[in-house]
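In this supplementary section we document a worked example of the pipeline. Step one takes a protein sequence of length 687 as its only input; no multiple sequence alignment statistics are reported here. Step two produces a three-dimensional model, which step three serialises into structure tokens for compact storage. The input and output of this example are shown verbatim.
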Amino acid sequence: MRFLRKANAQNKQKRSQIPFRLNFLFLIVFLLFAALIGQLAYLQIIHGPKFESEATSSDNQTETRNVQRGTIYDSTGKLLVANNTSRAITYTKPLSVTSSQMYKVANNLVNYVSVETDTLTERNKVDYYLADPKHTEAVNKHIPNADTMQDNEKLTKLQTDYVKKHNLVKKMSEKQEQAAVLYAKMVGAYALSTIYLKTSDVSDTEMAEVGEHLSLLPGVKIGTSWARSYPNGESVKSVIGTVTSEKQGLPSDQINKLLAEGYSRNDSVGSSYIESQYENALKGTKEVINVQTQNNEIIKEVKQYGGSPGDNLQLTINADFQNQVQKIVEDNVKNAAGSNPYIPGGYAVVMNPKTGGIYALAGVSRDLSTGEVKENALGTINQTFVMGSVVKGAMVMGALNDGVITPTNNTLLEEPIKLAGTAAKTSWFNKTGAANMSLTAADALQVSSNTYMMKLAMLEGGFKYTSGAALNLPTSIFDKLRQNFKQYGLGVKTGIDIPGEASGFEGAADQSHIGNALDLSFGNYDAYTPIQLAQYASTIANGGYRLQPHILKSIRKTNRDGSLGPVKYEMQPNVLNVVDGTKDQWDVVKTGLWRVVHGSNTYRTGGSMASVKPEIAAKTGTAQTFYNNTETETLSAISYAPANDPQVVVVVAFPNITDSNSKINTETVKQIYEAYWKTVQSSDGFK
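The serialised model returned by step three reads:
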């Protein structure tokens, strides 16, 4: 009984504890629900609008990607400049990314890719070092008030100075240096712009490793890059120009302009000559990607525009002919060097006098100390020389236009010019007066009379020559003669579509140099470029139209099979000015140039070119110059053919010749014509 009573008491006690436990459990549940309701109220009522805005906020941004550059062809459709494509590792900078995040990506990427470090600078190393938050924190401990400093630029300078002073980047490992190179490229990119991290020698292993670990490399992608190649040799590379590499990036002198036009800092861009001149056509239109972001994270990419590869250029240059002319000039300079030790090079231009199209620009420069000869086709547009008697055709035409001579009344006495206080000025064949003769304008051109041209200059200046008289000319005679020459392109830029053209050189034009006005009249004072000679000769050949020389023939699209596509733009002849003249006046000059080669006078200067068929008209030039104290000559020549229906102009210039018997100018002209009629145009139907 006692046992039962004890058991009942215990059961009664347990039953009394159950309601308490249930009540406690209910209390806990109640409190949890209350907390949940409170949190919901906090989220929805107090901060609901903020979180809703963040959850739904999105933005659309535009990302651009490069397309393949247009190619370049010669006049026959032969490929001159192509693109070699290669695998590449690229980086598209996220919309919002910190330096420490890019630091991490760079460190991860060098585990799978190796890059060259030859461009790495000390500042690159410092920036990479400070991108590690631990390093920045450690450095800041040594900079007073670093945590409160508001001037970020000042703080960065202090941090940089400290790192340099204590050589904290002196002993970086090879991997760290490679990561520093990658980091520098990433930091320099704009948000959502795509740059190249590696463009050459990307191995299969590197491609596979990067592809496998893209999740650890936000922004890194596998792509392609391209580099210029020259399938038919590099004979016109100096004229075509260059494209910057990914390492070089945008040219420093154009960087702000190009960045404003949408280029990235390490984009390849035409940096010189044709590649630069026609950059807008060659570059194409970048691919456009519409990037949708949310909370600064990219959530969707949609290709808005697939991009358009660059257009192709077709040039007026004939590649085979260009190679031949280049070799002709080079061989003649090398062969002449033995008897002409001061010859610094030679130049030739071949041009269409009806359109202004350039068939060939050839030139070489020669190192006088080593004798080494190098290609220098650009010398045709940027090297100036005193050219000599080639200008005499323009001199005669100017006198005809001014009326000091006429087509029917133009005979003057060839004789040494003797002025008070100066040595006699003579023609090359009449030093003593033993060859005095009466010359018409045409015959004066045939024999290259200096006297005739000087007398024309004196007539133009209002001075009547008598032997022994003091020269009395106004300084305005310089401007008068030069304005006439400039109508033909002598002494002014021709407008050729290659940047870097020189305008020539003018000697002093004051009264103390008044005697030099006579030298100017026969081409022995001012200096001109070979391309100016070509424009000048073309102006005579076509009867007075000064045409802009050009190397572009057309801009063309690309067919689907990669071949040269339809024409988008075709270069048209551009007449810069017209030299006035009647047919009779032009006939005087053209007859004189024909007689230079085919005339009967013993003193004609171009007789060695009479064998060229079809017949050519020409004017040779010999300018008296000096190399140090040694007397030299510039041997030049202008010409066109056929003489009665000009199709082509050939001009040459060879400075600092010391061999008085040299025929380098006329022999070069002959060889170029032979190559032209075989390679560029058939001579059938021409006399």
